[in-house]
Design goal:
single chain, about 180 residues, mainly beta, 8-stranded antiparallel beta barrel, 1 helix, 8 strands, about 10% helix
């Protein structure tokens, strides 16, 4: 008897939350991210690797589709400073990503694919970016996220291939 009463009360109090949770991903958002980045530089058979903290900003838009699917776009800018690659080297990366995800209520699981541009100071090159991520609605308009991305660049002026892997945590405000 007590179990049935408790189950009914939990269902009554959680039903309104579950009903509106799937509708919260539509709209613009902006925020900050920070994390860690690994860079691999390859020239012929020689290679160097280094890691660095990374931080940046993002601006995006999500639109809910049918059957809990969400599609969106995001523009992000991040910077890292690699010190183990000889001289200290700043690496600024701008990404334009398409995001496709599945709405699990307060959680959005998604994949990203897009364009990336890296500015090394002495060289500037375009490449591809791809990855996976997860977002969580911590409050009505606050999204906490984690994203793992991989960027690939071929710096033609130097003959060096640069591949970066970034794990970033973010917080965004949804408008």
């Amino acid at each position: 008897m007590k179990f049935t009463t408790m189950t009914t009360l939990v269902a009554l109090f959680s039903a309104p939350t579950l009903a509106i949770a799937g509708e919260d991903w539509n709209g613009f958002y902006a925020g900050l991210h920070f994390g860690a980045s690994d860079a691999d530089l390859t020239s012929g058979t020689a290679g160097l690797s280094d890691h660095s903290p990374v931080y940046g900003v993002q601006l995006g838009y999500n639109h809910s589709l049918f059957n809990n699917w969400v599609i969106g776009g995001e523009l992000s800018y991040g910077t890292a400073e690699y010190k183990g690659l000889g001289a200290s080297k700043d690496m600024d990366t701008t990404r334009l990503k398409i995001r496709v995800g599945y709405d699990l209520g307060p959680t959005l699981v998604y994949g990203v694919l897009g364009y990336a541009n890296v500015d090394l100071g002495s060289a500037n090159e375009s490449g591809a970016t791809y990855g996976i991520g997860i977002g969580y609605k911590a409050a009505d308009r606050i999204i906490v996220s984690g994203e793992l991305t991989r960027d690939s660049f071929d710096i033609r002026s130097t003959g060096v291939d640069v591949d970066t892997t970034q794990l970033a945590l973010g917080i965004s405000y949804q408008f």
